[in-house]
Each structure stands twice: as structure tokens, then as C-alpha cells.
Amino acid sequence: MNSKVNSRCETACCASIRSSQAGFSLIELMVASTIGLLIMAAVLTLFLNVSRTNDEMAKTNVLIENGRFAIQLLQSDIAHAGFWDSYIPDFDDLTLATAPAEIPTGVPWPCLAFSSWTAAIRTNRLGIPIQVHNTQPSGCDTVITNRKSGTDILVVRHVDTCVAGASGCEAEVGGKLYFQASRCESDANSYVLGTSGHTLRERNCTDIAPKRRFISHVYYIRDYAVTTGDGIPTLVRSELDLESGAVKAKAAVALIEGIEGFRVELGVDRISDAGIDIIDEDSDNDLYREAVDWANTDNLTSPRNRGDGVPDEFVHCSGVCSVDRLVNVVAVKLHLLVRSLTSTAGYVDGKTYKLGEQAIAAANDGFKRHVFSTVVRLNNVSGRRETP
Q1: Pick from 37, 63, 193, 231: most CB atoms within 10 A?
Q2: Could you tell me if residue 8 is inside a domain?
């Protein structure tokens, strides 16, 4: 009797164990697999979205950094335009009692080799530290190449802010172009701009005055970055420097990629403190070409035939501005159109980009774009004109 009971108990126990060890049914396995696949798909979608967002943020960051860097680079160079050490062009020298004689007579050719410079050409370059062209300047065909149509050419001139050979400055190199301003009243010349003959003196008329490297930069937008046809618009710069024994405009060097729009407006200082227009567009009878006419001759305040250092108009001239406007430039307004370096699939752009008065319709080519603008004051030029 007991053996039969024990046998039945063992049989029930084994059945219970077999029941607890049973695996998933086919339906349960399919449901679990489906749920797992859905979770995996959600995780994969999230990963792809995050990755895509990071890629787009990286593209945008590069675009912004390139735009800011381009603005800062141009701004730094333009701010020094017209710095000639202690020398001041006489039409901007308010201590001069006579009519100025060193007034530019023509717009300089930016790519002209130094060997062809005359005294008049030197005067033109010192009197016009900033100029802008929207067409190819004469003599620049081998320097300005593959320029992107519809973009400007900016020329900036000044001397180095450090003295040649001083600590932290480039050592003096024979054959390079240097500027030296006289500080001795008995010197025959007020300055020397050349590759030799720098014998002008300091105020004690004994020590030799410092020499500074002459800087002339030509900025423009090239339609490629590294290889012709790569399609990456790039801000480039040609520099006047010594090459193969001659001082000339060197081949342009790529600076910042992705800059595809470049428009420059010049801020002209043409209204004096007395509200008088000092520029006569139709003749050479400009008031700034005459001796300084002080409103108060006793205290020498408010010259009526000189600008006050503040831009009265911003202009974008066809071809190049007139000499009268260029010698009175005291500020520059920059507009840059910057695009991302790689395109975004499916990106639709319906914007119109404004670079001053220039409107550029969206290319809708998958590249993101942004406009950067700023106004730069020519500290050296405008500062000379400020009076009480």
C-alpha cells in the first residue's frame, strides 16, 4: 500500500518538475523576437538621428568658425591701414600751414612690381591705404586668377607694427621693401620707401630712425581651394614681397575655405564739422586740397575743409572709386557669404542673402550658408582728423 502511494507521489512530482522546466512556445518566441527587433530599431534610429545631428552641428560649427576667422583676419589688417609710423600724408596733417603737395593723383595698380614705382606712385600708395575693385585691376592677370564672379577685390596697405629686427619681429632681409620715416627736421626727405637708402634719423638727428616692412595685401575669392576645379570657394591673399630677387605681388595663398561671397563698402569722410562737403566730384577744386581753414584760428579747432574722421557715406563704386573718395576713406564695411564645406542631403534653402545692396539668391545645392558683416574703423586715418 505504501509503495503504491509513494509511486503516485513520485509520478506527480516528476510531472510538476517537467512542467516547470518547459521552454517558450513558438508564439512566445515570435512575440519576444518582434519586441526585441522593435527595440533594436528604435535604438538604431536614435543612434542615427544623434549621429546625423552631430554631423550637422559639426558642419555648422565649421561654417561659423570660418566666417568669424575670416572677419577677424580682415578686420585686423584693415585696422592698421594707413599706418606709416610717424609719417602723415600732408593732406591729413593738420599742423601743416600751407596747401598740401603730396596728394595722390591716381588709383594705384595693386599688382605693379616695385621696380616700376616712381615718386608719384609712392605718393599714391601712401595716400590711398585702402582700395576696392569689383573688376579685374590692370596688370593683375597673373596674380588674381580664378576669381569667383560677383566678388570684390580688396587692397590693404600699411607698414609693419613692429620694427624690423626687433624682438618678436621678422629680421631685416636684404632686398625687401622697407619704410622709414624721418623724425629729424634737417633731413631732406620725410620718408624713404625702398629696398635701400634708409639713412633718415631720429629726433636727435644722430641715431638712425627705425625701418618697418612695407605691407601690401590683395584679398579676393578664388573658385577653388587646393586643386583647380575642386569647387570650394576660398578667401585667398597675394602679398607684395621679395621673390626671386624682385619685390612683386606673389601668387595668392589660400587662407579660409568656404568663403564664396565678398562685398566691401567704403566709408567716406566728406563732411566737415561745419557741415561742408569737402569733395567736388566734377573737378580738382576739392576743399581738402587747400590749406587748413580753421573755424577758430586762435585755438585751431574744427577745420572747415577737412573731414572729422566719421564716415558720412558708405559706397560701393563701379570698377573702383575715385581718388577723392579713396583718400577720404575712414572705415570699411565688410560682408562675407560663407557656406558649409560639405552638403546636407535633402536640405532646402529658400533664402536670399543680402551683402549690403547685393542680393544673392539661394543656390539650393544642399550647402548651408550664413552672412557675416562688420564695420572696421581705420584708426590711423580717422584718428588724424579728430579735433576738439
Answers
A1: 193
A2: no
Q: Where are the beta strands (DSSP E) in the chain?
A: 130-133, 153-159, 178-181, 191-194, 211-222, 234-243, 246-249, 253-257, 259-268, 294-296, 301-303, 313-315, 329-339, 352-355, 358-361, 369-377
Of 63, 152, 147, the closest CA to residue 333 belongs to 152
Query: For the stretch 301-338, what's the b/e string if a residue is b when 16 or more beta carbons lie within 10 angstroms of its beta carbon?
Result: ebbebbbbbebbebebbeebbebbbbbbbbbbbbbbbb
When pLDDT is averaged across residues 371-376 and rounded to a whole number, the result is 98
Cα dihedral angle (53, 59, 64, 66), rounded to 10 degrees?
A: 160
Report if residue 43 sits inside a domain: no
112/138 Cα distance (integer angstroms): 9
Structural domain includes residue 19:
no
Look-up of cell digits 550647402? 367
Assess contact for 114 and 175: CB atoms under 8 A: no
Of 111, 144, 378, 154, nearest in space to 269 by CA: 378
The cell numbers describing 142, all together, are: 597673373
254 near 226, Cβ under 8 Å? yes
Is 18 inside a domain boundary? no
Number of domains in the chain: 1
d(CA 71, CA 261): 12
CA distance 120 to 115: 14
- Site of grid cell 600751407: 98
- 42 or 116, greater pLDDT: 116
- Give the model confidence (pLDDT) of 208-243 as tens digits: 999 999 999 999 999 999 999 999 999 999 999 999
